[in-house]
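Teaching soon. Got one?

===
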Amino acid sequence: MVMLEEIRVKKAAQHNLKHIDVNLPRNRLIVITGPSGSGKSSLAFDTLFAEGQRRYIECLSTYARQFIEQLEKPDVESIEGLSPSISIDQKTISFNPRSTVGTVTETYDLLRLLYARVGTPHCPRCDRVVSSQTAQQILERIKLAAAGTKIKLLAPMVKGRKGEYLRLFDRLQKKGYLRARVDGEFFELEEDIPLERTKVHNIEVLVDEIQVVPAEDLRLKEAVEGALELSEGDLLVIWDSGEDQYFSLNLLCPYCEINLPELEPRAFSFNSPYGACPVCHGLGYAMRLNDRGDYELTEELCSACGGSRLRKESLAVKIAGKNIFDLTSLPVGRLLTEFAEFEFTQAQMQIVSRIQREILTRLEVIEELGMSYLQLCRTTASLSGGEARRVRLAEQVGVRLRGVLYVLDEPTIGLHQKDNRRLISLLQEIRDEGNSIIVVEHDEQTIRSADYILDLGPGAGEKGGDKVAEGKLPQILSVSKSLTAQYLNGQKEIPIPLKRRKAQGWLTVLKASEHNLKRIDVRFPLSVLTVITGVSGSGKSTLVYDILFRSLSNKLHSAQHRVGEHESIQGIEKIDKVISVDQKPIGRTPRSNPATFTGLFTPLRQLFALTPEARVRGYKAGRFSFNLPGGRCEECQGAGAKKIEMHFLPDVFVTCDRCGGARYNKETLAVRYKGNSIADYLAMTVDESFD
C-alpha cells in the first residue's frame, strides 16, 4: 500500500497545545473534534492556517508584503507538506451595509464586467437605444449651445484613479499645453502639482479657451478634434456659466440630447462615485441626520434609485431587456435559469463566453449550498450566521482552486440537517479536485463523513491540548477515554427534561412579512425556553432578529433599528428588557479580554479600591484600570507589550521591560488582596481565581 502524502506537524505548542506531533493525510477531508477549549482552533487556525498563509506571503515582494496584514509565526518546531491556506471561520463575513451576497461571492463583479462589455445602453429619459456620435455632431451642438459666449475646452486624461502623474504633466507640457484642471482646481503645468499617490484624482488638460463666434469656427473645430484625439474620444466643456458638460464620441441620445459616459465596470458599482446613486451614495436607502449629528440608514427606500443603489444612466444599460438590478433582484435559482437562456451574437460570445461560464459556476455553487432563495442584492448584514458562512464558502469554492489547504470553523452551525448533506457533498467535491480540507466541527454527521479524524482533549484549557485519538471513524470509536467517542457510541447523551415549564404570558407578532415571511402571525411564550426551527432560509432569523428583537429594542431601549415588515406586536408591556446574543464576533483588540468583555473587571477594580492599602494611598477604582493614566505602566501605556512595526515582515510584540507584561506600575502592583495583585488575578484562569 502506497502511503499518502502527509502534513507533518512537530511539537505544536500554540496556546494550550502540549507540544504535540500530528500527521494529517493530504487531499483528504479531515475533521478535528474535541470539547470546546481543547485546542482545535489553536491547531487548525493558529498553527496550520497561520503558517500556510505566512509561507505564501513570504513568496511576495517586500513591497507587496507591507500592504498585507501578516500572522505571526506559530509556536511549532516544524511543519512539512503544507500548502497555501485559506481560512473560512466565523468572523469573515462583512456586516457593512455595502456588502451584498453578490459582492461577497464576486458574482456581481462578473456581472458588472458583462454589462460593461456587451450591455446595450438606453436613454434614461426616453428608453431609446443610444448610439455613438461623431466629432462633427459634437462641434455643432457646442456652437448651438454657446453661440456668442466664451467657453473652455478640456481633454479628460485621468478619471478617478490613484497616482502622482508626474510623467503625464511633463509629457503634456512638452506638447505645448500650459494649464490643467486637477481635482476641480486649475494649475499651471510648469509649477509643481503635488498629488497624493494613494488618493483618487481627476485630471483634465486645458486645450483652448474660445469665444464661440463665426470668425473662430476653424479654431473651435481644431480644439474639439484635438481634445477628442488627446483623450481618446472624450471632451469636457466649461460653459460661460461655469457649469461642466461631458461629451463623448461614444454615446448620445439624439432625441433627449443626453450624453452617457463610456461603459466600464465601475459604472455599475454602487461603491464607486461613477456608478452609485448620487442621492443615497449607493446605499439604497434614504439618509437623515440623527440627534447625534450623524447620517444613518432609514427604512425608506431612496426616492431617486428605488433601492437599486445605482445611477439612472447605469440602470439604462440592458441585456435581454433587463438591467443589472433586475438580475440581482431575482432569487439565485430563478436567475440561474434565466441567465443560462441568455442569447448572444457570435461576436459577443467571443467576449462573454468565459464571463458567462464563471457566473454560472458561482450561481450553481450557491444553489448547491441550499441558498437558491437568496438574491444577489441581499445585504450580508441581513443574513443569518449559517447563511453568512455558506456565502463565504461559495466565494472560495467558486474560484475552483487546486492544491490548497482549506480550514473551516464549524461550517454546519445554523444549518438544518437537510442541508448538512449538501454541505458535506460540496466539501467532498472540493477534496476530489485536489485540495486538503480541515474542519473544526462538533456535528455528528460531518464527523462520520470524514476521511480522517483527530480528537483533542481530554478536557478544556490546561486540561486539553493533547491528542486523544486519531484515524478513521472505527479507530476513534475504539478509544474509550475519548469524550467524542463516548457520545458517538451512545455511552453518553444529553438527557431530555422530564418536566416542562409553563408559559407566563405571550408575545404575539402579527402579519410578519419581511423577506420571505408570508404575513404570518406568531406567538412566543414568556418565561420559558423557546426554540425557532426550520430549514435554512425559512425565515427564522428574519422573524426573531429583524422583526422581534429590533422592534422590542426600539420600544424598550429607544434604539433606532430598521425593523422588518409587520403589522404590530402585542404583549410588550409584560417585559422590560431585551438582549441579543448573536453570532457577531467580540472585540479582538489587545486591550480586550474576558474580564473587560464580561463586565467582571469593574467590580474587581472596585474590590481593590476598598483594600486598606488602596484607601491609605487614596486610590480609586480608576487606578486599577490599565486603560487610564495613573495606575498603568506608561512605558507600554497599559498594553503589557510594545508593538514594533516591521513593514514587510509581521509586526513584533515585545514584552514591556519596565512592567514585565503586568500592564501596571509598581505602586499599583503593591496593592494586594489575599496576597495577589490585580495583575495576578488577571493572569489566573477562571477556576484558579474562583478557588
User: Anything to note?
Assistant: Residues 6-93+385-488 form a domain with the Rossmann fold fold (CATH 3.40.50.300).
